[in-house]
Write a structure and sequence with these properties.
With 237 residues, the protein is mostly helical. Helix content is 80%, strand content 0%. It has ten helices and no strands. α7 packs antiparallel against α10. The longest helix is centred in the middle third of the chain and has 37 residues. The chain is flat. The model has no long low-confidence stretch (mean pLDDT 87).
C-alpha cells in the first residue's frame, strides 16, 4: 500500500510539473483523437442524416449493420487497417504504417459508426416530431435531415463528445497500427499498458490521472450540452 501511495504522489507531481514525457504523450493523444473525431464527424453526420431519410432496397439491413458496428472491436479495426497499410497491402505504397496518420485512420473507422448511428436516430426522431412543417415548406428529404441536424445541434454535440471519448480511451487499434514507438506513436493508453508492464507505476498512474481528467471533461461537456438543449427547448416553447 505504501508503494502505491508513493507512486500516486509521484504521479501527481508529474502532472502538476507538466513532465515532458507525459506532456508529449498527452499532446499526441489529443492530436490523434481530435483529428479522427473531426474526420469521422464530417462523414458520420452526413451519412447518418442521409440514412434517416433515404429510401432504397436493403435500407433496414444497412441500418442494422451500422448499429452492429457500434460494438466494433478495436483490435479488429487495427488488424484490418494493418493489413491495408502493410507493404503487401493495397495501400502499402502510402508508407504510413506505424505513424500517427495510421492511428488517425484506425480511430476514424472506429468512431465513424458511432456518429453515423446516433446521428441517424437523432434525425429520424426529430423528423417524426417536426418533419411535416419542413416538408410543407418544400424542403427536400435530405435538406430536411440536415436542417433537423442543425436544429438538434446540442444533441449533436453530445454525439461528437461521445465519439471523442471512445477515441481517446482506445488502445487495441492504435497499438497494432502505431507500434507504440517512443516519441512517435506512443499515446496515453499504450503508454499506460507499457509502463505498467515495466513496473514504472508513477508514469502509468500520471497518464491514468490525465486520461480520467479528459474523460471527466467529456462527461461534463455532455452534461452541459444536454442542459443547454433542455434550456433551449424550454425557451422555444
Amino acid at each position: 500500500m505504501s508503494a502505491f501511495g508513493e507512486s500516486l504522489r509521484t504521479a501527481v507531481a508529474m502532472v502538476v510539473d507538466a513532465d515532458p514525457v507525459l506532456f508529449r504523450t498527452v499532446r499526441l493523444s489529443l492530436a490523434v483523437s481530435l483529428s479522427a473525431s473531426a474526420i469521422a464527424a464530417a462523414f458520420g453526420l452526413t451519412a447518418g442524416a442521409w440514412l434517416a431519410v433515404a429510401r432504397f432496397p436493403g435500407r433496414r439491413a444497412l441500418i442494422t449493420v451500422v448499429n452492429t458496428l457500434l460494438a466494433l472491436p478495436s483490435v479488429v479495426v487495427g488488424l484490418v487497417v494493418y493489413l491495408l497499410l502493410s507493404r503487401s497491402g493495397p495501400l502499402g505504397a502510402w508508407g504510413i504504417l506505424f505513424t500517427p496518420s495510421a492511428m488517425v485512420i484506425a480511430q476514424t473507422i472506429l468512431v465513424l459508426p458511432v456518429i453515423a448511428a446516433l446521428a441517424r436516430q437523432l434525425v429520424a426522431d426529430g423528423l417524426r416530431d417536426g418533419g411535416d412543417q419542413l416538408r410543407s415548406l418544400g424542403a427536400q428529404p435530405f435538406t430536411c435531415a440536415l436542417l433537423m441536424l442543425l436544429h438538434e445541434r446540442w444533441a449533436g454535440v453530445t454525439i461528437l463528445l461521445t465519439a471523442f471519448g471512445r477515441a481517446i480511451s482506445e488502445v487495441g487499434a492504435v497499438m497494432i497500427v502505431g507500434g507504440n514507438i517512443d516519441g512517435v506513436t506512443r499515446v496515453i493508453t499504450t503508454t499506460i499498458a507499457l509502463e505498467t508492464s515495466k513496473g514504472n507505476l508513477p508514469l502509468a498512474l500520471g497518464l491514468g490521472l490525465v486520461l480520467l481528467g479528459l474523460v471527466g471533461i467529456v462527461n461534463l461537456g455532455i452534461s452541459l450540452s444536454q442542459r443547454a438543449q433542455g434550456a433551449w427547448m424550454a425557451g422555444a416553447r
